[in-house]
Amino acid sequence: MVKILSEAPVSRDVEIEKEARELFWKAIEILGGPRQLFEYRRLTWLPSLMEAAFVLSLAKRGKMAKEIAQELGLSTQTVRLILAADEESVRKKIFEGKVKKIKDHIAGGLIKLAAKAEGKEQEKR
């Protein structure tokens, strides 16, 4: 039996779940894949990346920060930090090896990078 750690409601919208999952995996791919995360001992990044993926997916559907925070059980400030993330500065930090601990804005930046990459891949199809 799986114990639920949080009673916070999480969106059960199939499209949001699918998009969040795709963004999550694309962000991991950008970082070098699951093995790279393991080798760098960065597995603790995974929850922040998933939160950011859901935040961005909900924001793309027109939800406001307060609504997203309530739906995901996050603080409004955390949602705002994720949405305000500067993906280009995150790209520089990651690829210059200057990231020691992921923070919400870094996770948000990674998910935004993933969204851009996904958008470019869809344009090619």
List keywords for this structure.
125 residues
Compact description:
This protein is an all-alpha fold.
Number of domains: 1
Number of strands: 0
| Radius of gyration from the alpha-carbon trace, in angstroms | 14 Å
Span from first to last CA? Answer: 42 Å
Report mean pLDDT, rounded to a whole number. 83
Helix count, per DSSP?
7
Q: How much beta, percentage-wise?
A: under 5%
Give start-end ranges of low-pLDDT stretches.
none
Shape: globular
What is the succession of H and E elements?
HHHHHHH
The major sheet is characterized as: none
Please estimate the helix content: 55-70%
List the helices and strands and how they pair.
Blueprint (H helix, E strand, L loop, with lengths): L13 H18 L2 H6 L5 H15 L5 H8 L3 H8 L3 H9 L8 H21 L1
Helix pairs in contact: 1-3, 1-7, 3-4, 3-7, 4-5, 5-7, 6-7
